[in-house]
């Protein structure tokens, strides 16, 4: 009886190794100092981390956006036109900073360290703004 899963050369595809999944990523180690394998890094743990950070960031962004005009015209005493211009600048900056973050992550720090540093800065800025509004 012929094997239903075989290649044209007759090799069994179920026994074939996937070389990209077994490769060690040269020059990189995990947080314990062990070499990183492609099959052992990332996956759902990192996906949940990134999704959780993004949900929290979007919630904070829209929470601030809805109150920013009131904050700028009230406690900071800006005119409505100046406050609207500042909100536009803030929105544009918030939309373009991921490009800078992508460059830094790809060129220097790596994705997870960049996410952790950017999240820390974001939380610090939110805290400073909340304290100044009180």
TrEMBL record:
The keyword Ligase does not apply. One of its GO terms (cellular component) is membrane. GO terms for molecular function: transmembrane transporter activity. InterPro entries: MFS_trans_sf (IPR036259), PTR2_symporter_CS (IPR018456). Keywords: Membrane, Transmembrane, Transmembrane helix. GO terms for biological process: oligopeptide transport. Signal peptide: none annotated. The chain crosses the membrane at residues 87-105, 112-133. Belongs to the major facilitator superfamily. Phosphate:H(+) symporter (TC 2.A.1.9) family. This is Uncharacterized protein. It comes from Fraxinus pennsylvanica.
């Amino acid at each position: 009886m012929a094997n239903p899963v075989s290649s044209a050369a007759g090799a069994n595809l179920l026994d074939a190794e996937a070389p990209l999944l077994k490769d060690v990523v040269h020059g990189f180690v995990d947080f314990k100092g062990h070499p990183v394998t492609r099959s052992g890094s990332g996956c759902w743990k990192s996906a949940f981390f990134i999704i959780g950070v993004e949900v929290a960031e979007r919630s904070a962004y829209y929470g601030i956006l809805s109150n920013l005009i009131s904050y700028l015209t009230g406690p900071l005493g800006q005119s409505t036109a100046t406050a609207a211009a500042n909100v536009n600048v803030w929105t544009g900056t918030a939309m373009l900073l991921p490009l800078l973050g992508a460059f830094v992550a790809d060129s220097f720090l790596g994705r997870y360290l960049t996410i952790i540093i950017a999240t820390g800065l974001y939380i610090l800025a939110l805290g400073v703004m909340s304290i100044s509004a009180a």
